[in-house]
Specification:
The complex is a heterodimer of chains A (243) and B (250).
Chain A (H helix, E strand, L loop, with lengths): L1 H14 L6 H41 L8 H41 L2 H8 L3 H5 L1 H33 L4 H9 L4 H27 L5 H30 L1
Helix pairs in contact in A: 2-3, 2-6, 3-6, 3-7, 3-8, 3-9, 6-7, 6-8, 8-9
Chain B lengths: L1 E10 L2 E11 L4 E5 L6 H9 L6 E6 L2 E2 L5 H8 L2 E4 L11 H12 L4 H14 L15 H13 L5 E5 L7 H18 L2 E5 L3 H7 L2 E6 L2 E6 L1 H4 L5 H7 L3 H9 L1
Parallel strand pairs in B: 3-8, 3-9, 6-7, 7-8
Antiparallel strand pairs in B: 1-2, 1-4, 4-5, 9-10
Classes of the chains: A mainly alpha (243), B alpha/beta (250).
């Protein structure tokens, strides 16, 4: 375990060595940003809408006491969405979508000697392959999380319109009531850290793949599983530190 | 010229290379031959720096490559072209992008100059007009030729080729051999080819090194092979009935 961690740290150090040519790396970063950001828009939009809607209905269901105003449902749904559902659930989904793609892409390049070809040319392979992915994930996942928050809260509003468990007006009052911008800061910090975790762990798993198609699949699975565990661990640490 | 001095390579308990000392001559096709597991590809990977030798040195034109760090190796690496067994073309790039990739990273050429060079390399391997195709759209022989085009794009001094004929039909294999031979002469490169294809050995083997159980067992030219009394080499070269019949006719 310690040797794996050491190799992971060394790989990260290699990944952030000075690039051979900045414009080639820049083009790669842009390509990865499109892949991570635009490519994940659909799935993040769908899960955010549904989670926002389901959260609102469940919170409203639990607020059975007449002493508690129904506007509280909006506040609870908002904070749950901002603090937990949008960053964490989105990151877990992205670990599956983006992380597995990173691990299998780099793993396939390893077993088909494409990484060897880069090294023979004198290219810093970790830098060229891994750093653009880490940068792309650390910039695009926070943007996806912001979108997820907006859609999650909209999902709650749609649930109110459709199910009438809370009136849309109560919901909107609750959403606006006693909003603390710190929650958004926490969500963004989480998103940046989760982005780093997904890209770096999955890239590490892919980079040290050896064998063939079976091992690439295993590396991809390991990348997703370890990323998910580390996301949940980081979630706990950040929550404890910032709130 | 490339020299290897007493190269040893061990993987765990398994000593794959046991002190290989050899010279690879400039302007010639240097073939490393031997049966499977004899250490051919490991030797090639030690020479190009994909494996670090456990012991020994690799010298490129008088410079000790083994003792260099990553940055120090870059200037030598820009003079190295390599064709991999499965071509190792970058899947996400077109043929043209594959060939232009090293030019983009290591030269200050304009886009037009790079494109011109890519077209020249494609022409040289008889693949004009394939610029926008992706590796998945190419046949095995075409992939090898694109691999060669990429390898020569930087006008290398050293060309390394791992099993150039694996998976190819005999006609295409001869075509690839001839192409490598022509380019070696044209650019006066030091070409190192790992193979166990006897047609290649007989066709382009100007300087042949035979490995057996991780040791250099024999060294000479393809013309000398038929007359050697080295038992292991004879067993390897004349394993097929066809080669035995050919030898009998000599």
């Amino acid at each position: 375990m310690f040797s794996s961690f050491g190799r992971y740290v060394l790989l990260l150090r290699l990944s952030f060595r000075r690039p051979e040519k900045f414009n080639v790396y820049w083009a790669e970063i842009m390509r990865e940003m499109v892949s991570v950001g635009i490519g994940s828009l659909g799935i993040i939009a769908i899960i955010s809408l549904f989670i926002g809607a389901a959260t609102t209905i469940q919170v409203a269901f639990q607020l059975s006491s007449p002493l508690v105003p129904m506007t509280v449902a909006g506040s609870i749904a908002r904070d749950s969405t901002i603090l937990e559902f949008s960053p964490t659930i989105s990151a877990l989904v992205l670990a599956g979508r983006v992380g597995s793609s990173i691990a299998s892409q780099i793993g396939t390049m390893r077993v088909t000697e494409q990484i060897d070809a880069l090294e023979i040319m004198g290219v810093n392979a970790p830098g060229y392959l891994i750093s653009p992915k880490i940068i792309a994930c650390m910039t695009m996942i926070p943007l996806l999380v912001i979108m997820s928050i907006l859609l999650g809260i909209s999902g709650g509003y749609i649930a109110c319109l459709v199910s009438r468990v809370v009136t849309p007006t109560d919901y909107l009052i609750g959403v606006r009531d006693s909003f603390d911008p710190l929650t958004v800061q926490v969500a963004l910090v989480k998103a940046v850290v989760f982005g780093f975790i997904i890209a770096s762990i999955c890239a590490y798993q892919g980079f040290y793949t050896s064998g063939g198609a079976l091992e690439v699949g295993q590396a991809s699975t390991r990348g997703v599983v370890y990323s998910c565990v580390m996301i949940l661990f980081a979630d706990l640490v950040i929550t404890r530190l910032m709130l | 010229m490339i020299e290897t001095i007493n190269i040893h390579k061990t993987f765990g308990e398994n000593e794959v290379l046991k002190g290989i000392t050899a010279n690879f001559l400039q302007g010639k096709n240097n073939l490393i031959i031997g049966s499977s597991g004899s250490g051919k590809t490991t030797l090639l990977k030690c020479i190009v720096g994909l494996h670090e030798p456990t012991k020994g040195e690799v010298i490129f034109a008088g410079e000790n490559f083994t003792k260099m760090n990553f940055e120090q190796r870059v200037p030598i690496r820009t003079h190295i072209g390599m064709l991999f067994q499965n071509s190792a073309l970058f899947d996400s790039m077109t043929v043209e992008e594959n060939i232009m990739f090293p030019l983009n990273l290591f030269t200050e050429k304009s886009k037009e100059e790079k494109l011109e060079r890519a077209n020249f390399c494609l022409e040289r391997v008889n693949l004009e007009g394939t610029n926008q195709l992706y590796p998945a759209e190419l046949s095995g022989g075409m992939k090898k030729r694109v691999g060669i085009a990429r390898a020569i794009s930087m006008q290398p001094k050293y060309l390394f080729v791992d099993e150039p004929n694996s998976g190819l039909d005999p006609k295409t294999a001869i075509l690839i051999d001839d192409l490598i031979n022509e380019l070696t002469e044209e650019y006066q490169m030091t070409t190192v080819i790992v193979t166990h294809d006897m047609n290649s050995v007989m066709g382009i083997g100007e300087h042949v090194i035979f490995l057996h159980n991780g040791e250099k067992w024999w060294e000479g030219s393809n013309k000398e092979i038929a007359h050697t009394d080295n038992k292991e080499l004879n067993d390897f070269v004349f394993a097929s009935k066809f080669m035995r019949a050919a030898k009998a006719k000599l």
